């Protein structure tokens, strides 16, 4: 439904990158657009899954992670999940069916070495003209920032996690 789709990046050390992408996805679905929402490095349901379920004809959500955080050297399973997720995302984007594609935590997957940066650049350069793409995650590579049309950096000023507040349903998960 977009005449021209742009590339957006939400990056930085602060909280709210995925939340911003979820907001855009819900706006798009509310306008009758079709959304592909791929979550890299994630494997368990969170609150957005329930709201996305209210839009079964508009939002397709897939997760491309294991049930473990990647700590140190990624396992073969971590790499296979991420690379399989990129392949599925590329097929969804290239199909032209979706108006918006969110690649949540893709920056982190690249920085961990799960996905080659060149593969992401190729995906962005070959996307159909009308497809809008949002990439989230800390430490966006400069090469992706250079390609993007919109880049927002979310900077942490203060976070209650540092005083022991754990992730809460409806806010962080």
Explained architecture:
With 173 residues, the chain is an alpha/beta fold. The protein has one domain (7-163): 3-Layer(aba) Sandwich (Rossmann fold). The chain has 6 helices and 6 strands, in the order E-H-E-H-E-H-E-H-H-E-H-E. It has helices spanning 17-30, 47-52, 76-94, 106-111, 117-125, 142-147; strands at residues 7-11, 35-40, 59-64, 100-104, 132-136, 150-153. Strands 3-2-4-5-1-6 form a 6-stranded parallel sheet, with helices on both faces. Strand 2, helix 2 (47-52) and strand 3 (59-64) form a beta-alpha-beta unit. The radius of gyration is 15 Å and the shape is globular. The two termini are 30 Å apart.
How are the SSEs ordered, and which strands pair?
Layout: E1 7-11, H1 17-30, E2 35-40, H2 47-52, E3 59-64, H3 76-94, E4 100-104, H4 106-111, H5 117-125, E5 132-136, H6 142-147, E6 150-153
Parallel strand pairs: 1-5, 1-6, 2-3, 2-4, 4-5
């Amino acid at each position: 439904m977009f005449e021209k789709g742009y590339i957006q990046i939400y990056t930085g050390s602060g909280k709210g990158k995925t939340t911003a992408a979820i907001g855009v996805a819900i706006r798009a679905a509310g306008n009758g657009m079709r959304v592909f929402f791929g979550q890299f490095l994630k494997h368990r349901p969170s609150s957005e899954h329930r709201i996305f379920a209210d839009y079964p004809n508009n939002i397709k959500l897939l997760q491309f992670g294991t049930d473990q955080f990647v700590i140190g050297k990624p396992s073969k399973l971590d790499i296979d999940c991420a690379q399989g997720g990129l392949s599925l995302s590329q097929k969804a984007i290239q199909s032209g069916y979706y108006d918006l594609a969110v690649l949540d935590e893709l920056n982190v997957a690249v920085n961990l070495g799960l996905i080659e940066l060149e593969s992401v650049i190729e995906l962005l350069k070959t996307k159909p003209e009308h497809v809008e793409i949002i990439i989230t995650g800390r430490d966006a590579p400069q090469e992706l920032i250079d390609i993007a049309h919109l880049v927002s950096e979310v900077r942490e000023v203060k976070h209650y996690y540092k005083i022991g507040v754990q992730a809460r349903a409806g806010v962080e998960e």
